[in-house]
Amino acid sequence: MKATIVVLAGDGIGPEICIEGVRALRAIAARFGHHFVFVEHLLGGAAMEAHGDPLPAPTLHACRQSDAILLGAVGGPRWSDPNAQIRPEQGLLRLRQALGLFANLRPVVPHPVALKLAPLKPAIIKGTDLLVVRELTGGIYFGEKKRDATSASDLCSYSVLEIERVTRRAASFARARRGLLTHVDKANVLETSRLWRSTVERVVRQEFPELRLEHVLVDAMAMHLLTRPRDFDVILTENLFGDILTDEASVLAGSLGLLPSASLGEGTRGVYEPIHGSAPDLAGRDIANPFATILSCAMLLRHSLALEAEARCIESAVSAALEAGVCTADLRKRGAYGTAAAGQWVAAWIRDQPA
User: Fold this and answer.
1) Does the active-site annotation cover 330?
2) Which tens digit of pLDDT belongs to each residue from 119-160?
3) Of residues 141, 158, 272, 337, which has the active-site annotation?
4) Is 81 a catalytic residue?
5) Catalytically annotated residue among 53, 129, 154, 247
6) Catalytic choice (81, 126, 145, 219)
7) Can 129 be counted among the known catalytic residues?
8) Closest CA to 317 of 351, 274, 350, 272
9) Which of 39, 258, 282, 302 has the fewest beta carbons under 10 Å from its own?
10) Span 212-267, pLDDT tens digits
11) Please, what's the largest Cα pairwise distance for the chain?
C-alpha cells in the first residue's frame, strides 16, 4: 500500500514524540512492504511564529490531500496570554472543523505493567477495556463567546444532526465490541443534554436495538470511572465532558503517556494524536513518553489505512516494550529510557519479528 501521511509535530515535546511515531511507521512499512510518504507541516505555536496563523493554508491543504494526519501537540507558556486574539489551540480546533472530524476515539486499556503504577488499586483497574467516543466539533468550544468588563459567556449549542452522526459512530463500535453503550450527559440541568438524551435514545432504539443503552450523569460518571471502570464498554458524550473525563481516565492507564486517540469524520481520513499536551517543561530533554504517539499510529493504520495486522503489530511492540521494562521517566524513576531509546526499541522489535 502507498499512503501519504502529514506530520504536524506542533509545539513542546511534539517534534520528539512524532519522530518516534514516524520511526514505528517506517518499521511497519519495511516489514509489511508498504510505502508511506511523510510530509511535514506546521501547526499551533510553531505555525504562529512562522506564519502568524496557527493553521496556515498550506497545512490545511496538505491535510485535505493526505490519507491520514499524525499530530504531536500544540501550545505552551509563550502563547498562554488569555487575552490573546490568536492562540495555538485555535489551529487544532479549526483543523478538526475543516476536516469534519466529529468523533474523537480514546481507548483506555491498562497494560499489566501500568497497573502497578496507577494511583488506584490494581483490583479496581484490572480488566478495564473501554472506549470513549467524544463529540469533537460542536458544543461550548465552538459556540459564540462574549466578554465585557463585568461578565462573560460561552454558548453551548448542538443540533440533532451533530448528535445523530456521533451516536451512530459510537453505537457501531459498541456493536462490534461488547454491546454496551453508556451515554454521559447532564440532563437534569442542561437543555443541550436533554436533546442529547432523547436523540441518542431514538437513534439506538431504532437503528441499534441489540445494544444495551444506559444514561449516566457526568458528575456520577466522574466517580464511576475511578471506582468501577470495568463496567463500561463504549462511552459516548459531548465535547467538554469528553475532554475532562478522558483526562481523568488517564489515571487508569498509569500515565497520560500511554493513551492514544483518533479523530474521525464520515470518511477514512483522520487525525491521530496522544491525548496529552505539549509538556513544554519536558521539551528537548529526551524524557517524554513516545508510546501514546506510537499507539496513535496503530490507530492510524487501523482506521485510516485498514491495516489491522500492522496496527496489532505496533500494539504488540509497545506491550512487549513495557513487559521488558522499557519505561520512560513518567513510568519509572530510576533507569528510565529516553524518548529516542524507547522509540528505537519499539521499531527494532517490529523489524525483528518473523514474517
Assistant:
1) no
2) 888 889 989 999 999 999 999 999 999 999 999 999 999 999
3) 141
4) no
5) 247
6) 219
7) no
8) 350
9) 39
10) 999 999 999 999 999 999 999 999 999 999 999 988 988 888 788 999 999 999 99
11) 66
Task: Pick the closest to residue 63 from 35, 24, 96 (CA basis).
Answer: 96
The answer to whether 219 is a known catalytic residue is yes
Domains of the chain: 1-104+255-355 (3.40.718.10), 118-253 (3.40.718.10)
Of 186, 233, 272, 330, catalytic:
186
**The three three-digit cell numbers of residue 173, written as one number:** 463500535
Residue 126 annotated in active site: no
Q: Which of 185, 233, 243, 330 is catalytic?
A: 243
